[in-house]
C-alpha cells in the first residue's frame, strides 16, 4: 500500500480525503478504510491524531514522517511498503495562512469583506481550518455561525462611509470583518474560510505522549516491538524516542489490519 506507514497513522477512510491541493495532503489509498483500534491503540491514536481536522492531522503527519525518516529506523517504515510519495521538500514555512470568502447568494456578490486580526492558534485545539456562515437577517442584522460547532451570534451593524462596523467571528477574540455598503444586501449569505498557523513543537508532543497509558499490548514482548520500546524508553535523542513510539503504534495498527489483533 503506497504511503502505508502514513496511512496507518492517519487511519481515516481513503475515499473521503481532501483533494491533492489541500494543505499538506498526501496520497491515501482510496480503498483504505479506517480500522477499529483496540484500547491501547485508541489511546495512542488520541494523542497522535485524535479528532484533529484534516489540516491539523496533515500537519502532524508532516512532522511524524520527517521524524521517522530522520534516523536509520526509517527502514521499518519502508519495510511495510517502500513506495512513498511524501519525501520531497514541501515546507509549511512559506505557506500563507490566508482568509477567503465566498458569496452564496447573488445579492452577496456585490459586497466585499475585509478582515482584521487573525485566528488565534492553539496547541490544545487540533484544528487549523475554520469556517463561518454569514447570513443577513435584515438591513443591519447579521448572524455569524461557526460551521463546526453550530454556535452563532447575531450582530447589529452600523455603516459609516460605505463600511460596516467590526463584526467578531464566533469563537475568536481577535478576528473580525467589515462589509462594504450602506446596509446588508437582502438575503445575502457568505461563507468565510480561514487557516490558522499550526503550533506544537516536538518537545510538546513528547510530553503529551508520555501521558498515554502504556500497556504490554502496546509494546508486546517480541520484535520489533522490543526494539521500539527500548528506543522510546531510553534513547538519548528525541527523534529516536519519538520514532520508537510512532513505530510501535504503526506496527500495532498494521497488526489490526492484517490479523484483526
Write a brief structural summary.
Helices cover 30% and strands 18% of the residues. By secondary structure, it is of the alpha+beta class.
General description of the model:
With 261 residues, the protein is α+β, with helices and mostly antiparallel strands. The protein folds into 2 domains: 4-92 and 205-259, no CATH class; 99-195, no CATH class. Helices cover 30% and strands 18% of the residues. The protein is built from 7 helices and 10 strands. It has helices at 4-10, 39-48, 54-68, 74-80, 202-209, 225-234, 238-259, and strands spanning 99-103, 113-117, 129-136, 141-146, 152-156, 159-160, 163-164, 167-168, 175-179, 189-195. The strands form 3 sheets. The chain has a 5-stranded antiparallel sheet with strand order 1-10-3-4-5. A 3-stranded antiparallel sheet has the order 2-9-8, with no helix packed on it. Strand 4 and strand 5 (152-156) form a beta hairpin. Helix 1 (4-10) crosses helix 7 and helix 6 packs antiparallel against helix 7 (238-259). The longest helix has 22 residues, at 238-259. The protein starts with a helix and ends with a helix.
- Strand order in the largest sheet: 1-10-3-4-5
Question: How many β-strands, per DSSP?
Answer: 10
Q: Fraction of residues in helices?
A: 25-40%
Give start-end ranges of low-pLDDT stretches: none
What order do the SSEs take from the amino end to the carboxyl end, as H and E?
A: HHHHEEEEEEEEEEHHH
Using the CA coordinates, give the radius of gyration.
22 Å
Count of distinct structural domains: 2
Task: Give the distance, in angstroms, between the N- and C-terminal Cα atoms.
Answer: 19 Å
Apparent shape: elongated
**What structural class should be given to the helix and strand makeup?**
alpha+beta
Assembly type of the shown chains? single chain
| Strand fraction | 15-25%
The main β sheet shows up as: 5 strands, antiparallel
Q: Please give the count of helices.
A: 7
